[in-house]
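Hi there, hope your week has been kind to you so far. Would you mind checking whether the tokens look sensible for this chain? I owe you a coffee for this, so here goes:
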Amino acid sequence: MSDSRITFLGPISGRGAEPRQGTRQGLTSRVPWPFLVVVVLPTLVTAIYYLVFATPRYVSEARFIVRAASQEQPSALGVALQGVGLSASATDSFAVHEYIRSRDALAALEPKIDVARMLAPAGVDVLSRHPRPWEGETKESLYKGLQRFVTVGYETSTGISTLRVETFRAGDSQKLAAALLDSGEALVNKLNERSSASAVIDAERTKLEAETRLRDIQSRLTAFRNREGMVDPTLSATENSALIGELLAGIATLEAERSQLAAQAPNSPQLPILDGRLAAFRRQLAEERAKIAGGAGSLATKFSEYETLAAERTLAERAMAAASTALDTARLDARRQKLYLERIVSPSVADKATEPNRFRAILMVLISTLLIYGIGWLVWAGLREHRQL
């Protein structure tokens, strides 16, 4: 009986490697290379950047409101209009927002704080700081770079604005937010001064025009009085009317006397005398009536010109009074502040970095790449089906 001996322990040659090769072939067949390029690789790079290299940022937040001194509580319609951004307070707030994001605000900040140093301290990753590798170190580049670190929002239901500033140090965020808020408050004060000065200048110009107009009419009225030799044609007409009334009364008396005398003594020598007096009264009456109306030099013509000048003088006096009142009101308003920027929450100093939100950023990249891959796959499937048809 022969002895058998085992000389090798292990799997039979050629059989152990087949399952591993089959596993790799199955994995590559289940995960196509476009998915790896479009979805896996960008998500992996993003995850490595945010989890390993991204520098944390500290957020300083401030809340403020811009309102007018005479601003009243809005009605139901006003609240509805505020919802679509049509209120006056929203317009004033947006003006401050635009200034905070403007180049003028950056120019006002630079003499006070070193904005460029705050956005690029030592040790910050190249993709978070300013300037990034593809950005220059110009003023325009600094202005655009600052937009990444400053956010201003507006709550339509409350009218409260929120200013958020992100930098790589908590103190820098608080300092930059406070400086921007000071610039916004300075803008509101400047708008107040400009508005008040403009209102006072307009009121002074209006009063000067009213004074000139009134002075011109007074000169024309004085010239009329000197030319016509009367102060008021209305008063002259009244005096003439009284004289005409006396003449008419005298004529009536003389006619009555003559009628009585002619009835009692038709050949009386007093009759020619009475006739002479009647004729004189009637001539005088005709002259006085001609002075009031009937000729080019009558009081009616002068009265029309005088009434026109008097009406112009009345209007000029009213305009002068209104201009004086408007000027006094404008000067009083100039002493009062019309717009206010009230700080509800002062810029805070964060004790913990809250930006960037790493997991949200990675998730956003994953979702975005999945959508791109899905759309691309649908397009490719459609083209392939079209070719088969």
Notes: The beta strands are 58-68, 150-155, 160-167, 339-345.
